[in-house]
Design goal:
Shape: globular
Structural class: mainly alpha
Number of domains: 1
CATH topology: Rhomboid-like fold
Number of strands: 2
Strand order of the largest sheet: 1-2
Number of helices: 11
Oligomer: single chain
Strand content: under 5%
CATH class: Mainly Alpha
């Protein structure tokens, strides 16, 4: 099985277990106040393997699987035999990086909690978009009619606005920073650890799309 499928199955299993076990949910959830005062840093990672409900879980895992399988294969093309390792590093490190701004903003707030793989999934999605910027993407229930290089900036602007506005109950900050981190990770690793010109490929694909 692919790494993407393994991560999906593990996340589904832990999420369902936590939904029916409040003690487990409380132990794994991201609680900045506890992280700060009790040094439970593992919560940066475990919170990405639990979800609030089945809809939350289904949406994240569907998005992850749709893009993750493609990104995983592309990493094997870019990094060769080390592709799987870099793919795992990307996903796991995204769980940490996407939550750092949340931690810094809420570590004094005892009542704030966050959960879900959305930040890491956003990293994978945006890596996929950067690798294939002309792919057609839909918005929610709309059919895939928007090229990725248009969807990406629109999504980031909307997410940044919602993150600044707050009060939605959704950790838009994790989505935003996960997306940005994914692209930065791809650019840096491909530049220093492969012969693949990811930026050149990105630009060339957009030029070809606009010039068709």
């Amino acid at each position: 099985m692919s790494i993407t499928l393994y991560i999906t199955l593990i996340t589904v299993g832990i999420s369902i277990a936590a939904m029916y076990n409040d003690s487990l949910m409380d132990k794994l959830i991201f609680h900045p106040h506890t992280v700060k005062n009790h040094h439970e840093w593992y919560r940066f990672f475990t919170s990405g393997f639990i979800h609030a409900d089945f809809m939350h879980l289904a949406f994240n895992m569907f998005s992850f699987y749709m893009f993750g399988d493609y990104v995983e294969q592309y990493f094997s093309m870019i990094f060769g035999s080390a592709g799987s390792i870099f793919y795992i590093i990307l996903y796991v490190s995204s769980l940490l990086i996407c939550m750092l701004p949340t931690y810094l903003h809420h570590y004094k707030d005892y009542y704030y909690r966050s959960l879900g793989a959305s930040g890491a999934v956003s990293a994978i999605v945006f890596v996929g978009i950067f690798l294939q910027p002309t792919m057609q993407i839909g918005m929610f229930l709309l059919p895939p009619v928007i090229p990725g290089f248009v969807f990406g900036p629109l999504y980031l602007l909307l997410t940044a606005y919602l993150s600044k506005k707050g009060q939605s109950g959704i950790n838009h900050s994790a989505h935003l920073w996960g997306s940005i981190y994914g692209v930065v990770f791809l650019i840096i690793t491909s530049h220093f650890l492969s012969n693949f010109d990811v930026i050149g490929s990105f630009v060339e694909q957009i030029r070809g799309y606009l010039g068709r």
